[in-house]
Amino acid sequence: MSRHRSNIRNMLQEMNSSGFSQSLERGLAVLSAFRPDRPALGISELARELGLTRSTTHRYVATLASLRYLEQEASTRRYRLGPRVLDLGFSVLGSMELREIAGPHLQQLTDVTGLTSNLAIRDDADVLLIDRVLGQLGRYHHLEFSLRVGSRLPFYCSATGKALLAYMPRPDLDRLLDRMDMTQRGPRTLTDKNALLRELAKVRRTSIATNDEELDSALRSIAAPICSRSGQAVAAVVVAIPWSPAGMNDLVSRFGPAVRAAADKIAAQVV
Fold first, then answer.
1. Are 40 and 79 in contact (CB under 8 A)?
2. Which of 25, 86, 94, 260 is least surrounded by Cβ atoms within 10 Å, i.e. has the fewest?
3. 166 and 261, same structural domain?
């Protein structure tokens, strides 16, 4: 953290009296060179595109890599955008604009299903709820009222978390899983990493993630990812299902299409 602050301070000190920083401009130009059609670039490629020398380019790339805005592939030695850039994107998506766009779709989802609808994003190692529309009260509604806008949920035992995890690049996913303490939360919590990875593979096949009493007893949920054009999940829509005698497969058949349709409609407007 101290090295991070020091590097940022050095950039700011280079600003001239007009408030313009050439270092900041070049650093942002490096980041902007990475696009969905070419996610990995070498020093020579970046130098040619930016019109800089290899040594200058390497200096900027090394700084951005030390701050985790870039990361280097061990096999190719090329660079790609790192997790801090993704964090910036998630923060933007958590703004009021996303909530305003998603709001009508959440309301429609609640109207159709009668269930509480939620919108969530990733915030570092947590799932962050940024909007919700309350559904009909049921016998176990107290479970829903324990959550609110701003609540944080663990990734591994929530439907929303699985929807976000399933579309992460594998290196980022592995780093995040290494930081997780997969403790028992509900009667059916997945506490084994390999079991979770199998569950995430299923999410990628179906575009539907579930929580079957994994977060808490008598609470189920169904989520769908809001995916960007590059295929990463930048947010997720989820409906909470207090205890029901129906099986999970039946609940997915009943509510899954509506959840997925809401996520797709939001994605069409924001990514």
1. yes
2. 25
3. yes
User: Does residue 128 share a domain with residue 21?
Assistant: no
Q: What is the DSSP string of 56-113?
A: HHHHHHHHHHHTTSEEE-TTT--EEE-HHHHHHHHHHHTSHHHHHHHHHHHHHHHHHH
Domain that holds residue 205: 88-270
Residues 240, 118 contacting (CB under 8 angstroms) = yes
Report yes or no: 91 and 60 within 8 Å, Cβ to Cβ: no
The per-residue pLDDT string of the chain (271 residues; one tens digit each, 9 = 90 and over) reads 444 444 444 544 444 445 667 888 888 889 888 876 778 899 999 999 889 999 999 999 999 999 888 988 888 899 988 867 766 655 554 555 788 889 999 999 999 999 999 999 988 788 988 899 988 765 545 555 567 787 889 999 999 999 999 999 888 899 899 989 999 999 999 999 999 999 999 999 999 999 999 998 888 999 999 988 778 898 999 999 887 889 999 999 999 999 999 999 999 887 5
Global pTM reads: 0.65
